[in-house]
Design goal:
It is a single chain. The protein has eleven helices and four strands, in the order ββααααββααααααα. It is mostly helical and 294 residues long. The chain has one domain: ABC transporter involved in vitamin B12 uptake, BtuC (Orthogonal Bundle), CATH 1.10.3470. It is globular and about 65 Å long. The strands form two sheets. The chain has a two-stranded antiparallel sheet with strand order 1-2. β1 and β2 form a beta hairpin. α1 packs parallel to α5, α1 packs antiparallel against α8 and α9 packs across α10.
Length: 294
């Protein structure tokens, strides 16, 4: 059976690959959207934090014998603590000035992190084994679905939707949103706004690390893995709308699928299709598909 002249298995395989990539785009853009939407910081270090999360998992496995499931918890905590340190020592001085300074600072931090890891581990990739429980594949009849890739999609989308629910539908999320719009008023109700901001940035960094751990068995762990991905993720955030949590999730998944289908029908355009869509969206709706117009 064929779809537009392409064997069905090849078509569905690319669709699955697009869905996996879209899941990573959704998780990374979610962290960016949380940080920008609640703190107003364009966190260009997000790709480096994603890379550090993958390396924390790999070092834990190689040096300490920490398995994959434990790394899903430890890596976000370690990178989240690093994010808290960055926020308390550097970013907190930039909240009341032009956002470009936050972007430049986080870009510099990303370059430093990448340089340090390249010096320590080189540019060749490190292999991270798929956990035994998720090895193998499931025959669906029309295609063979690798178990780990199915897990990545389920885990990523579950985390994304859970984060959206916390921010948009709970009292904690209401405090976070109110704290960014009127911190003095929220402080008057006895809520420690600086601590809340600090933990929000740390949580956004932890989301990037979690995406890195999920990605480690799929791609090689390398110091360049974050810089290769962050530009596409920023395009996803811009298309979805800067600061829009739901927009980042839906746009990330959708663009992953579009990218996968483009590889089937016109492979030469697969590396630029996201940016073409971004240009079209910005011409029609500068705030993004789900962003709020100024």
């Amino acid at each position: 059976m064929e779809v537009f002249g392409i064997p069905l298995q090849a078509f569905l395989g690319q669709l699955l690959l697009g869905l996996v990539n879209g899941s990573f785009y959704a998780m990374l853009s979610l962290g960016l959207a949380v940080i920008f939407g609640l703190l107003g910081i364009v966190n260009f270090a997000h790709g480096a934090l994603y890379m550090i999360g993958a390396y924390v998992a790999w070092i834990g496995m190689e040096k300490l014998g920490i398995n994959y499931w434990f790394s899903l918890v430890t890596a976000p905590l370690v990178v989240g603590a690093l994010g808290v340190l960055i926020e308390r020592t550097l970013l907190k001085h930039l909240y009341k000035i032009d956002p470009i300074y936050g972007l430049l600072l986080t870009f510099g931090l990303a370059q430093i992190a990448e340089g340090l890891f390249r010096e320590q581990f080189g540019v060749s990739g490190q292999q991270y084994a798929v956990p035994e429980l998720l090895q193998g594949a499931t025959n669906l009849g029309f295609m063979v679905l690798p178990n780990y890739r199915a897990w990545v999609v389920v885990a990523s989308l579950s985390v994304c939707l859970g984060t959206w629910f916390v921010i948009e539908r709970t009292r904690l999320g209401a405090y976070l949103r109110a704290g960014t719009e009127n911190p003095a008023l929220v402080q008057a109700f006895g809520i420690n706004v600086p601590v809340m901001v600090m933990l929000t940035y740390g949580a956004g960094c932890g989301l990037a690390a979690l995406a890195g751990v999920l990605a480690a068995p799929v791609i090689q762990v390398t110091p360049l893995m974050g810089s290769n991905l962050i530009i596409v993720v920023f395009a996803v955030v811009v298309i979805g709308g800067m600061g829009s949590i739901l927009g980042s999730i839906l746009t990330g998944v959708a663009l992953g699928l579009v990218e996968g289908l483009t590889k089937v029908f016109y492979p030469e355009a697969s590396s630029v299709v996201v940016f073409v869509i971004m240009a079209i969206v910005l011409m029609i709706r500068p705030a993004g598909l789900f962003g709020k117009e100024a």
